[in-house]
Structures are given as C-alpha cells and as structure tokens.
Specification:
Structural class: alpha+beta
Distance between the termini: 39 Å
Oligomer: single chain
Order of helices and strands: HEEHEEHEEEEEEEHEHEEH
Largest sheet: 7 strands, mixed
Radius of gyration: 17 Å
Length: about 260
C-alpha cells in the first residue's frame, strides 16, 4: 500500500526543484544533447536523482524506469514499477517557457495505477488514481464530450492539409500536458504518429482516461506499460465519441510509418 499524501508531496517537491532551476526564474541551466535533437539539462538529472531516491524509499518493492536513468531489466521482475520523466518538455524548460512538467506514474502488471503531473510554471498539479477519477488543482476533471471529428481542438502548431477541418489550440512542449488537456476538456484530440517512450505518457494517459477520454495507440489498440522495449508506436487520446473516426482517419498514415 502507498502513502498518497507523501507521494504527492514528493512530486510537488520535484516540481519545485525544477522550478528553482528554470530559466524563467533567472537560472541559466547547463544544456547538452543526449542524441541529436534531444536536449537534456542539469535540472533533468537533479530531479531524476531526487525522485529515484524518494520514490524508492516510499515503495522499495517497485522497479524504476526513467528517461534519465540507464534502464535495468530487473524492473521486469517487479509487480510494480515507477515510470518517470523528470522534466517532460525540456525544450520549453530551457527556453524559459512554461510548457513543461514533472511526470510520475506507478504501474502494476502493465497498467498505470497512479499518475501525477507537476507543472509549477503553469500553477498546475494534476493527479489520478485508477478507478477514482482525475483532478487538477483539486478540481475534478471531465474530458471532452465532442461527438464530431471535424472541428476538433488539437494542441498543435500546425496541421497537415488532410486535417484542415481540425482546429489548433495552445501546444505546450510537454506531451504529458497535451494529453492531459483532453482530460480537462481543453482539447478534443491528441495524436502522434511516431515511436515514443512509456515514461512520457504513463501518468498523463491515466489522468485523461480517468477523466473520461479514450486512450490507445495509433491503431486503436490498448497501451501496455513496463514492457521490455518501453516504446509504443503512436498515441491517440480523444473524446470517446470521435475515437473510431480518428483511428480511421489515421490508419493509412500510421501503417506507412510504423
């Protein structure tokens, strides 16, 4: 069993740590590239180390999978596993923009049990427990109820011509925050057509699902977590009534790219 109050204190403290290192507060972070086009900064590593220590002490039986820690296969032998992105949206973070978050999920047998996002630069704290709903800043979340795909709000800078009937809304760099927007009825549809990692999405997909959204991969299939290869192709988070239409629209594109 887990102490929820302590968990949320840890995630909030991680968010505060990141906020204290954020350029928006005058800090000049050290930034480098792990791989071309994939930036990382000192805040990523500091928050990762803090969460690994504190969450490990909170639940010693759980495994660990994080963007900033070398993966170890022993996590596959644990019934529980923490999935962590210490700073999701590093590009926004290093540019002093607020569209980043600290993402923490606890997964059991391939399914998220608990999810939390701390986005202190936006004054937001999101959380969900499987079967108990989702909240932002203490207020219960209810996902989009849109029934028609055309006109759906998408957090994106721009859209392909094939999706010209959709509407762009604000796009934070953090994929977790974009997912959560569907759960908060600030967007109707979030779709990606690329390989992505579990730590980016585990917490936010639970939040969106608990708020009433439908979550799947790009082909409409359920997502599994804490796999040996912690990736999935594509992500689709939608209002329930438009999920089938979104899968149908993306099917050819997804098949060509997968």
């Amino acid at each position: 069993m887990i102490d929820y109050d302590r968990l949320h204190k840890i995630v909030r403290a991680a968010g505060d740590m990141a906020l204290g290192l954020w350029p928006g507060h005058g800090h000049a972070p050290q930034v480098w590239e792990k791989t071309p086009g994939s930036p990382v900064c000192d805040a990523d590593l500091a928050v990762d180390a803090f969460l690994k220590r504190e969450l490990g002490a909170l639940l010693p039986s759980a495994g660990w999978l994080s963007e900033e820690t070398v993966d170890h296969p022993e996590r596959l032998e644990r019934g529980l596993c923490w999935l962590v992105d210490p700073v999701d949206g590093t590009r926004d973070f290093v540019r002093g923009r607020p569209g980043w978050s600290v993402s923490v999920a606890l997964v059991s047998e391939g399914r998220p049990l608990i999810g939390a996002l701390s986005a202190p630069a936006r004054g937001e704290y999101w959380s969900a427990v499987a079967g108990q709903g989702a909240e932002r800043n203490g207020s219960k979340l209810y996902a989009s109820t849109r029934t028609v795909l055309a006109g759906s709000r998408v957090p994106a800078d721009s859209l392909p011509k094939a999706d010209a009937d959709l509407v762009t809304v604000d796009k934070p760099n953090s994929i977790a925050l974009r997912i959560a927007m569907v759960g908060a009825n600030e967007a109707d549809l979030l779709a990606t057509l690329r390989w992505g990692f579990e730590w980016d999405i585990a917490a936010a997909t639970l939040i969106a699902r608990e708020a009433g959204a439908v979550v799947s991969d790009a082909f409409g299939k359920p997502l599994d977590y804490n796999k040996r290869d912690p990736r999935a192709f594509g992500l689709l988070v939608t209002a329930p009534a438009i999920h089938a239409a979104a899968v149908e629209r993306l099917a050819d594109r997804a098949a060509k790219l997968a």
